[in-house]
Amino acid sequence: MPKILVTRRTFPEAAEVLRASGAEVVIWEDADAPSHEDLIAAVADIDGLYAHITNQVNAEVMDAAPNLKVIAEFGVGYDNIEIAAANERGIAVCNTPGILSESTADEAFALLASMARRTNDLPAMVKRGEWGDFDPLGYLATDIHHKTLGIVGMGSIGSEMAKRAAGFNMNVLYYNRNRRDEEFGATYVDSLEKILERSDYVSLHNPLTPETTNMMSTDQFKLMKKSAILINTTRGPVVDQDALYEALVSGDIAGAALDVTVPEPIPADHPLLTLDNCLIMPHVASATGDTRMKMAMMSVENVLAGVAGDWPPYCVNQTEIAGNARIKS
Ligand code: 8YV
After folding, report:
1. Is residue 329's pLDDT more than 80?
2. What sort of enzyme, by top EC class, is this (predicted)?
3. 264 is catalytic
4. In this structure, which residue's CA is closest to atom 12 in ligand 1?
5. CA 113 to ligand 1 centroid distance, Å
6. I need a surface site. Which of 120, 171, 213, 290 has the fewest CB within 10 A?
7. Which of 198, 283, 292, 326 is flagged as catalytic?
């Protein structure tokens, strides 16, 4: 009987499908995620790991799990998994692509709209009883329509962002490693620098890799318009937060909305939280009931296929491990 560890609580429907497979299923139900040491102890005899962003699944974890055939990440980003170590060991790594793109773009666009139309700071002012007499020059916001949105990373989520922006009559630019066949009305720009210079809003949708770590730092903020707003729904380390704080305080850019930070959760005394022109959400772009349920079911599909010795449907390293895959041995 294969054994599966799920590192966070999950939907009852997902747990039921896992258990109905006949596998032994251990679900980490604690309020806190397992520590690295807890994880190492818990993986000793597992065949499948249903993992979450809360844990780094590195070579040490993999070596503590000699039977591990498959790691199914709950999410499209799998930067918390040491993919080179998984490849070396023939462990299949899977994710949940596609199904969360629209929800994530919905949130990214909501952040853009909130910063533009000041639903971030003005309601707090009203609650403080500071709503003064009508003033034609008071509480001015920034338009969304006919402004330029720069999308960095035109994958599935970036494409959904472009579609939303088109509905708001925005001009949309995108920068991507390769020009896309389908552009959703957006115009390709061949460098990060150019898109930063031209955009009123910059929305990040590229994955976190060694190359994109601190991709947005002092030099990049200086290239942006002083009126520009940054939206980050990808991964915290893509933005150099100290440089962002400086840029927001000095006026190099006008505002930022972050769904992701370093670390997560961001400490309550973090300098970014003192700024009115910075909106921070607790990494919830995919967090709608419907989407999280789909992600859970896709993770279940992945982990069950792997422990049964089949290629999981959303395996990201099938080519890399084709010669040494544990699921086939
Ligand atoms: C998840 C995400 O909520 O898919 C991703 O990459 O960031 C989110 O959808 C997160 O990974 C939690 O595991």
Report:
1. no
2. oxidoreductase
3. yes
4. 53
5. 22
6. 290
7. 283
The pLDDT-based confidence of 328 (bands split at 50, 70, 90) is: confident
d(CA 84, CA 317) in angstroms, rounded, equals 10
Structural tokens at position 214: 């601190």
Write the pLDDT tens digit of every residue in 230-283: 999 999 999 999 999 999 999 999 999 999 999 999 999 999 999 999 999 999
Task: Identify the residue whose C-alpha is closest to ligand 1 atom 10.
Answer: 75
Cα–Cα distance between 261 and 280 in angstroms, integer? 8
- Close Cβ partners of 275 (under 8 Å, ≥ 6 residues apart): 245, 248, 249
- Residue range 32-63, pLDDT digits in tens: 999 999 999 999 999 999 999 999 999 999 99
Name residue 306's beta-bridge partners.
none
CA of 229 to the centre of ligand 1 (A): 23
Q: Is 235 a catalytic residue?
A: yes
Give the pocket of ligand 1 (CB within 6 Å).
52-53, 74-77, 100, 286
Structure tokens at 7: 């590192």
- Structure token digits, residue 279: 């909106």
Cβ count near 91 (within 10 Å): 25
Q: How many angstroms separate the CA atoms of 255 and 125, rounded? A: 17
d(CA 76, ligand 1 centre) in Å: 6
With both helix axes pointing from N to C terminus, report the angle between 101-117 and 289-307 in degrees, rounded to the nearest 10.
150
Nearest-atom number in ligand 1 for the CA of 78 is: 6
Q: In what order do the strands lie in the sheet with 171-175?
A: 187-188, 171-175, 148-152, 201-204, 229-232, 255-258, 278-280
Instruction: Identify the helix (H) or strand (E) that includes residue 151.
Output: strand 148-152
User: Cis omega before residue 66 (within 30°)?
Assistant: no
Indicate which atom in ligand 1 lies nearest the CA of residue 96: 4
State the CB neighbour count (10 A cutoff) for residue 110: 18
d(CA 96, CA 264): 21
